[in-house]
Amino acid sequence: MKIICLVKFIPDVENMQFDHKKNVLMREQAKLTINPDDETAIAAALKIKERAPETLVEIITMGPKVVMRKFQDLLRRDVDKGILISDPLYVGSDTYATSRILGKYLKTRKADYIFTGTHSLDGDTSHVPAQIAEILGSCHMNNVITLDIDQLFQGTALLRVNNEGNTLQFQMNPPGIISFEKSREYKMPYIRYGDFQRDVSDKMEILTNQDLGLKEEEVGLAGSLTEVSRTFMKEIAQKDSITVKNDEEGIEAVYQFLKEKGYV
Amino acid sequence: MKKCLIYVENENAQDAVDLIEAVDHLYGRENAMVFGFGCLESLKNGEGFFDVLIPGETEKSLEYDVKNITNCMEALHQAYGFDSILIPANYVGRMLAPRLSMRLNTGLTADVTAIESDGDNIELIRPAYSGKLMAAIKNRGGNPLMMSVRQKVFQWEKPRAAKSEWRGFSFDTIEEPEIKFIGIEKQEAVEDIRESEVLVAGGGGSAGYFKELKDLAKALNGQVAASRKIVDREIAPRSIQVGQSGKTISPKLYIAIGISGAIQHIEGLKTPDHIIAVNKNSRAPICSIADLVVVGDGKEFIRKLLQRIYGDTEHTKYNE
């Protein structure tokens, strides 16, 4: 069985910078962290590998080379291979162009399943997994919380999916894309003591556009089908607020307000 | 006359009807011919709202089968050449919209919250970078313009108009499904915060006493909601999250306890009639949109207000 995991490193959402002139995110400066849903996807793949060690787990990420250190930490787990797709030409790609780039590589790889996260904390569009599914012609499922590992080795993926608090069950035939949401079921294993500094360069490969061979007009801002034409701070209609303290008088004011409007 | 296609998801037909308001913002309702596509049963709810209704082949055969729904909508686009395709960002819609946009080689803007349009020059507005900014997005691809929209962001409140025209369409690109829906394992009677007129919501500041919000919600006949900080810390489920990455709500009364009011949160508040903000910091952004600001500790606020609501003697629980 071969599983490819697609992983995104996202800027620390609380402290990120934005280049207002170019309308792009200044990823190079931002502190990066692995997207939580994607971490669940890797953890699920590694759990399968723990059960069946012959399973091959490959991780792919796309981004600037600064992700390398974090990426290597992932490879210090029981991961077989890591691919970093990185090229300055790719900066500014929208989800469409990003999916084209990843899809170009994935078309050359054979895998039984591709694992991804459902949401990313930064963009939160959930576009890329579904778009890659379309490029590869495979089926796809979002919000997966668990999959049945025994069933997986019987030839189909039995998936439990969270839809607004309801749990639905699906059966998926390979090859397919399974997008996880953060779940307690799959926890990323720790790096073994002694592996913290392990050299993992033999597991890692960096691919640039020279390797993928996309045309310049197919990637980056040029290859994007959507464009941010401007950004602005939202103006919020302010109200003339009444401010009170959390004392008897203040609580009375709240109570009278609720009473006047008919809530109590 | 512009032609627009709206996907009508099973069991969520109202969300599709609400997207007619988005069409109105794009071109003006009277300048557009609005098509609805979905399963027969669910399309019936669109009668009188859509101009044309085109049911999928059989009633439920396409349920959750995103690949085949994509095949059908691609066939419809080839036949009609839509100017825009709008998809509710529900469970199926979130998988369908990106897949269809890739199939049609057109740009897709997710979670649109506003539209600025003079008919030809169209900007789709969505929060970006975790809601720190709003971004205006332009489609650089050709037709159709595609967008997904979360529930309740737009609301179509006009009454049913003339009768819809039902059209048959022979879909000959339906393939053997690769995904089989087995069933619903657990259907919790989850209360939908979007349906509640009163919401008592807790943010990061309420982490230590979040459970107690329920008592206040109960006293006011409402439900509990949460900000992203509380959901990220796994104190509350995502299903009750308010904001850009959660739900858009329009209650009558919103009590925000320990919520600072980041844009991404405010984005989820669709014109509540009344907002009460309880915060230790009177400069928190939420305070400037509140009718009433209580400066202080949320836990103490809940206890004191419950005492006042229930009276001092009847509910000793709050008098200890």
Description:
The complex is a heterodimer of chains A (264) and B (320). With 264 residues, chain A is an alpha/beta fold. Chain A is built from 7 helices and 15 strands. Chain A has one domain (2-218): HUPs (Rossmann fold, 3-Layer(aba) Sandwich), CATH 3.40.50.620. With 320 residues, chain B is of the alpha/beta class. Chain B has helices spanning 13-27, 40-43, 66-80, 91-103, 213-219, 228-232, 263-266, 298-310; strands at residues 2-8, 32-38, 52-55, 84-88, 108-109, 114-117, 122-128, 133-139, 145-149, 165-166, 179-186, 198-202, 223-226, 253-257, 274-279, 292-295. In chain B, α3 (66-80) crosses α4 and α5 runs parallel beside α8 (298-310). Chain B is elongated. The interface between A and B is large, with 78 and 86 residues.
Chart the SSEs and their pairings:
The complex is a heterodimer of chains A (264) and B (320).
Chain A: E1 2-7, E2 9-11, E3 18-19, E4 24-25, E5 32-34, H1 36-51, E6 56-62, H2 68-75, E7 81-85, H3 95-106, E8 113-117, H4 128-136, E9 139-147, H5 149-153, E10 157-163, E11 166-172, E12 176-180, E13 204-207, H6 209-212, E14 226-232, E15 242-245, H7 248-260
Parallel strand pairs in A: 1-6, 1-8, 6-7, 7-13, 8-12, 9-12
Antiparallel strand pairs in A: 2-5, 3-4, 9-10, 10-11
Helix pairs in contact in A: 3-4
Chain B: E1 2-8, H1 13-27, E2 32-38, H2 40-43, E3 52-55, H3 66-80, E4 84-88, H4 91-103, E5 108-109, E6 114-117, E7 122-128, E8 133-139, E9 145-149, E10 165-166, E11 179-186, E12 198-202, H5 213-219, E13 223-226, H6 228-232, E14 253-257, H7 263-266, E15 274-279, E16 292-295, H8 298-310
Parallel strand pairs in B: 1-2, 1-4, 2-3, 3-10, 4-9, 5-9, 12-13, 12-14, 14-15, 15-16
Antiparallel strand pairs in B: 6-7, 7-8
Helix pairs in contact in B: 3-4, 5-8
